[in-house]
């Protein structure tokens, strides 16, 4: 007997575990390893300096099609300043329409960092069989997503990468959403082991999504310096800084210290209006530095779960270990019923 939730049937996977997208970095090889291990891999929205996001997405999809056998998804960031999002949405519809195998296996688009309504309506009109989940950082957002999408990824403040101004933690967010929303909920933010999976299911989620824990695996294409930085870090070694789309959780380094001031939402929107192409390119250069191994002068996206990570296993080893831990924890909890 193993863990099986409605998410497994929904996505056609063995284990209710999603690998988070972590754009602008690549998660293509990681996606393949996750899929081959029985969980659900997601291709990131990649837009490092000099990269054409649309061409890169098609290349990454075809790579995954050739290098694993199960179902997978893609992420599209839909923020106001993400000007390539419409072209990426058109690409997904086109590829699924032209290739029956892609249509069969590319099951899910995860939209994030923006308004869920336009992409949800687009895919409903253009490709109604494609599942759409959206990332929600508060109950308010989760309830909006509930009426638009097929699933909700509730991401708490513990998570790495882009964060909400409201600072709602995962435990609060997931339990609230489970009470008020009807669509399946995937818990994200702070998960790194089987105890976390058991906790997420107890809170009302049908699965978990992890980013930081999957970076520290052998197959992940992130630089070894990045992986080692995570392993040696404590839960108190992250900080929330000002990012391109709002607050962003990073490991503490020179870059993070220089971007430490969190603007208000109104200040951030005013700043966005002043952004020029060169400023965006300069920020992309910093991300490229990190991807190439410079963990001092660029943003090292990382969640607080780094404090619970002390090894770099294969993806298969990690997933199988987590599932066994979760099963043991659920049995232990069941023993409390007398």
Summarize it.
The protein is an alpha/beta fold and 338 residues long.
Provide an overview of this structure.
The protein is an alpha/beta fold and 338 residues long. The chain has two domains: 6-222 and 310-333, Aldolase class I (TIM Barrel, Alpha-Beta Barrel), CATH 3.20.20; 226-291, no CATH class. It has 15 helices and eleven strands. The chain has helices at 6-11, 28-36, 53-67, 85-98, 100-105, 117-126, 139-146, 170-180, 194-203, 212-215, 224-231, 254-258, 265-274, 277-291, 315-334, and strands spanning 17-19, 41-43, 72-77, 106-112, 131-136, 151-155, 161-162, 185-188, 207-210, 238-243, 246-251. The strands form two sheets. It has an eight-stranded parallel sheet with strand order 1-9-8-6-5-4-3-2. Strands 7-11-10 form a three-stranded antiparallel sheet, with no helix packed on it. The radius of gyration is 19 Å and the shape is globular. The model has no long low-confidence stretch (mean pLDDT 94).
CATH superfamily of the largest domain: Aldolase class I
Number of helices: 15
Proportion of helical residues:
40-55%
Mean pLDDT: 94
What CATH architecture label of the largest domain applies?
Answer: Alpha-Beta Barrel
Main pleated sheet:
8 strands, parallel
Radius of gyration from the alpha-carbon trace, in angstroms: 19 Å
* Multimerization status: single chain
Q: Into how many domains do the coordinates divide?
A: 2
CATH class of the largest domain: Alpha Beta
Number of strands: 11
Q: Trace the largest sheet across and list its strands.
A: 1-9-8-6-5-4-3-2
Q: Helix/strand-derived class?
A: alpha/beta
In what range is the share of β-strand residues?
Answer: 15-25%
| Termini separation | 22 Å
What is the H-and-E element order? HEHEHEHHEHEHEEHEHEHHEEHHHH
Shape: globular
CATH topology of the largest domain: TIM Barrel
Q: Which spans have pLDDT < 50 for at least 5 consecutive residues?
A: none
